[in-house]
Specification:
5 helices
């Protein structure tokens, strides 16, 4: 599935549309270069699960932020990891045992992120839509339960 996201508000709305479909043990993987809107999408998703004014800082320096919601959600930024094993050290497995995870820079988990994650994953790849850098394209694909959940995603 490919979607056009003309601005940051549309990116946040996509995150909010994904939120009610998430279940414990599931992961949302956010791929894309710096500045593509990964944190904006994560913020929209987390605010839909918590409250509209939830403070959702990018976890670039803390590596992970945990939020009390239903299901509980953990927001990981793996950009600074040097080894995939470090994701476990900062609580990835615990996060998935209790709730779901949104992961920026999942490529830091190695060539096969399924080694570290459960079978139910939504993968989003964000890329520039226009040559002038305005707007984004989001390509979504699902594994496990997300193969069917994508059919019910309404943006």
């Amino acid at each position: 599935m490919t979607l056009v996201l003309p601005d940051a508000a549309a990116t946040a709305r996509l995150g909010a549309a994904i939120a009610p479909l998430l279940a414990p043990g599931e992961t949302v993987l956010l791929y894309g270069p710096l500045g593509m809107g990964k944190s904006t999408l994560a913020r929209g998703l987390i605010r839909a699960l918590t409250r509209p004014d939830e403070d959702v800082p990018s976890p670039t320096f803390t590596l992970v932020q945990f939020y009390e919601s239903e299901p509980p959600v953990a927001h990981f930024d793996l950009y600074r990891l040097t080894r995939p094993e470090e994701a476990v050290e900062i609580g990835l497995d615990e996060a998935l045992d209790e709730g779901c995870a949104v992961i920026e820079w999942p490529e830091r988990l190695g060539d096969d992120p399924s080694v570290w994650l459960g079978p139910d994953r939504l993968t989003l790849v964000l890329a520039e839509q226009a040559a002038d850098g305005s707007g984004r394209m989001a390509t979504l694909s699902g594994a496990g339960a997300w193969q069917n959940k994508l059919k019910s995603l309404h943006v």
